[in-house]
Amino acid sequence: MASKILLAAAAVLVIAAGGVATLAVKPPDLLRLGASYGAKIVCSNVFIAGRDGQAVLADDVQAPGHPLLKYLKVAVDQQRKTVRAQFLGFVGDGMAVYRPGTGCAVAPDGDVALASQYQFNPIRIWSPSPNVPWPTGSQAEANPAVQALLDQDALAGPGMRGMAVIYRGRLIAQRYGTGFSAASPLLGWSMTKTVNAALVGMQIADGKLSLQQSGFWPAGDGRAQITLAQLMSMSSGLRWNEGYGEVSDATRMLYLEPDMAAFSAAQPLEQAAGGKWNYSSGTAVQLSRIWQRAAAGGDAKAATSADVLSLPHNRLFAPLGMNSAVIEADARGNLVGSSYMYATTQDWARFGQFLLQDGIWQGKRILPEGFVGGMQQAAPASGGQYGQGQVWRWGPSGDTPEGQNPDTRFQLPADTYWMEGHDGQSIAIVPSQQLVVVRLGLTPHRLLYQPQALLAAVVKAVQQ
Q1: CB count, 10 Å around CB of 22?
Q2: Of 354, 310, 334, 349, nearest in space to 125 by CA
Q3: CB 440 within 8 A of CB 425
Q4: Does residue 222 carry a pLDDT above 80?
């Protein structure tokens, strides 16, 4: 009997050892994804935002994420500017690397050297003076009534990290979460899509793109009929799964594919372009690919050159004084226009004000006349919830039933439109009130926070 027990125990150990070896050599995609996600978030927050890596792991990755993430460990190499993340110290092997100008990239194929090539030396954008009123400087012209609203925790919402209210072109209130300040770059997630749309607009202004243009796939491919306008409206007809808590098209693209543009470009047509609205980060990355190639004169190789990668910094962020803003590139030089822009709260507000001013800054037109107005118009297939230029016409849904406008019960001005991002990022733009309200944080959707209540209160306050 004893010998049988020993044999059984030995068999279990052998099987367990084999399982561990298999995990180490060929981990499931879910674990690879989790490790890459952890490495990427820590990398960006350490090397762009200047935060402590272990605090980022605990607060930004593990606390709000999948239960498996509590077993994730990270190692930050300050000299090489890399972050390695592994489950239990040996499974998953996520790797991310920081590059000047283009931030952090996941290297799911392990080729850190290739990922590191896609960078540029940013020209200096002067820091805004604390003694000069916003937007030229960073000084607020406080409105006590509006500031009192931001100071209410219920309106600010759980996990708030940065808030700002711009009224008639002036910063009238701001608030920051514990451990964060006006100098803290914060991730906008899908608010990046709207900035990416503006970069498309700049290529239209340069005469290198048009909204009715097609031919972004090879001739004879059914996808070649998809127009730029349909991509901007999230109505391309391409198959895409935008789920976040699993291995989906969106998460695979962001964390398991070194070339995000190639992955998203390979998606097949699900139905005729223009017939169905489907929110897609893959579509946004295709827009990055399109405008980068247009800026390079159609040369696919030059599209990832330093000259093109620096275009957002030189031609958009510098004129607006957005000295903190960084759009990160993937491991093959595609700017991740779907998800990865970091900027301070005040710099996000500068971009919102830029849209409010119809794409004009300090008297200079940067976006084509009428372009911002077109962005706000309803995408025909979206049921009214989404615009034709990567903006939302409805605010965050909270617990509102699908298909119903969540803004209705807040009685917001009819011309309100939104930039929105994962985990509670939002910028509300209200042209009729000359109002921009920025709210950033780490607020998972399950908490059902809606910034509409804050916006409604601010609108009422500035009208008095």
Answers
A1: 12
A2: 310
A3: yes
A4: yes
What residue ranges do the domains of the chain occupy?
Answer: 26-99, 163-463
- In degrees and rounded to multiples of 5, residue 280 shows phi and psi of -150, 120
Q: Are 203 and 295 in contact (CB under 8 A)?
A: yes
pTM of the model: 0.94
Q: What order of strands is seen across the sheet that includes strand 103-106?
A: 72-77, 82-87, 91-99, 103-106
User: ∠ at Cα 181 (281, 338), nearest 5°?
Assistant: 5
Q: Is residue 188 classed exposed, middle or buried when 0-12, 13-18 and 19+ CB atoms within 10 A define those classes?
A: buried
CATH 3.40.710.10 fits 163-463, yes or no: yes
CB 118 within 8 A of CB 102: yes
Residue 90's pLDDT band (cuts 50, 70, 90): confident
Cα distances (angstroms) measured from residue 89 to each of 23, 40, 85, 94: 12, 17, 8, 11
Q: What is the amino acid identity at position 238?
A: L
Looking at residue 24, its pLDDT comes to 52
pLDDT band at 15 (very low <50, low <70, confident <90, very high): very low
Whether 1 shows a pLDDT value over 50: the answer reads no
Which of 17-31, 217-231, 358-372, 420-434 is least confident?
17-31
